[in-house]
Amino acid sequence: MSRFLLRRLAWFGVTFWAVVTVSFFMMRAVPGGPFGSDRALPAAIERAVRARYHLDWPLWRQYLDYLGPLDLSEHGAFGTRERVLGGVLAGDLGPSLKYRDFTVNDVIAQSLPVSMALGAAALAWALAVGITCGLLAALRPGGRTDAALRLAASAGIALPNFALAGLLVLVFVYWLPIFPVAGWGSWRQLALPALALGAPFAAYAARLTRTGMLEVLSQDWIRAARAKGMPPRTIVFRHALRGALLPVVSWLGPAAAGVLTGSLVIEQIFHVPGTGSHFVNSALNRDYTLAMGVTIVYMVLVYGFNTLVDVTYALLDPRVRLGARS
Amino acid sequence: MKAALGSGGARWALGFLALLAALSLLAPLLPLPSPIALSLRGEPGPPVAPWEELGGEGFRAEYWPLGPLDRRLVELRRSLFGAWQSGPWLGTDSKGRDLLSRLVWGSRTSLAVGLAAALCSLVIGVLYGALSGLAGGRVDEAMMRLVDLLYSLPFVFLVIFALALLEAPRGGWPGISREQVLYLAIGAVGWLTMARVVRGQVLSLRESEFVKAARVLGSSTPRILATHVVPNVLPVAAAYLTLTVPSVILLEAFLSFLGLGVEPPRVSWGLLAADGVSALNRIQVSWWLIVFPSAAIAATLLALNVLGDALRDALDVRGRGGV
Q1: Is A257 in Cβ contact with B165 (below 8 Å)?
Q2: pTM (2 decimals)?
Q3: Distance from C-alpha of B249 to C-alpha of B262, rounded to nearest angstrom
Q4: Potential cystine with B310: which of A156, A159, B4, B56 (Cβ 3.0-4.6 Å)?
């Protein structure tokens, strides 16, 4: 287990470094640079801005400064100017270029809890409903419930979350005024975005549960348990469910990543002040440091979650040995 | 292929997709209003059933710059239908543009993105996976680690980041349009799953008698790849392709919805869905601007998913063996 975790960590280091490096140089390769604006600034002001953000340094120095945990200016290596563009490895993502009074860390610290709450709510209802429906469908395969649920699942997978969000707003805000149109802070404001965000995942979870359950229920040891006279309820909940949920667990990693991605557009539609909407706005506003900071944070989140899921998977399924070579 | 089309659902899906492809290819020829001609009425108009208003004169040939073939088709349309155009059967949007026409023209974007990305992923994914599987050992290990690394990237975020860089004030990278970057980015990452699947196939093919025989007879690796491996891998690749295409179409709609995809005046389904959401207000609930684009996207994705599942089931060795 610890070997597995160590190897994961090493790979994470490589990925992290690659993303930071490539995005840093892409960012700097853009003509006009991050501080280019639509109108030309007087030369003196432009020089001052460039000096403030150390854009007059050679590229490798800027890179080391952005990346490094070491504050090079502190040691006098680059003169006495203070560090402004942050050191990613030290957890400093630098200043936001558009929100002049905030650092990227500030923006993320304010908005990430919102996104996490929305994502958690979406994933929670998706799992609860999806697993229940999958179970119901698997108990009577080919029945009417099964057919209806399969149809619903296909629709749920095919309908993009932004289309569903539009339909939900249409029905539950304008036709039946039950929920507020947008905003953040109350349970009623959470309902529609969470519903729209979670729907495809509920459909997918239902499918996975159904397939997994059918497969487990056809195993010999289940038949043996039935023959022994074990009550069906015990068979399904005590024995079969654990095995049937394994595919769902291993899918949770990609699902969490998908929820984070999906919240980009859901937050935009419902005006939720989360990290996703900041990210999209930063991309539209050319706020490169913010865009890059959010990318880095999300990468760490997804990686961490995937590792967590793998560990859980191994705990649930004794047959899995982490780190074993296939 | 025949087995895959045995199920009724898959047949319906294929029929729908064929109809959609025909509609989108022949869009300039159909007697639709122009997708971008504005009307002076500044509010959305509700749908009018064809039996109430079949259509009328008033066609104006307003388009974004079209290719030579499309210009020909527009001329042909003029000589066929004159100034006659269909009525607002699906309603009009907040600028008075005909929704049906915009949906049909928008389908071109989705299909083009899907096809381009599929082609990219097919070429890169199959070659990469086949090479990796065939090389084996260290090379295989290294090549698959690269795929793993790319897999763990927050891909959508990187694409959005790249598109943002392209919006740079002084023109971004010269000679590249946002649409081209979209195609490239989608294709460049869409091949990952393909590479994994193909590699798995090749690993089992590699141990097969006929590949061993070819190797003993002195065939070079490229030759084995071209004559023995790739033809055997293609059916499986085709099945996975039909599952890649819907995800790519979805991604394009997603990016266009966010305003990072296709640029107006061109249309795409994602853009139409975004228009529908932003047109919602309490005074006039223009439901058609939300319902029809959503239905178009959902039906297309559903058809592609059904077709892909059927193909995969028919080709899956495990499934065919059956117990």
Answers
A1: no
A2: 0.83
A3: 12
A4: B4
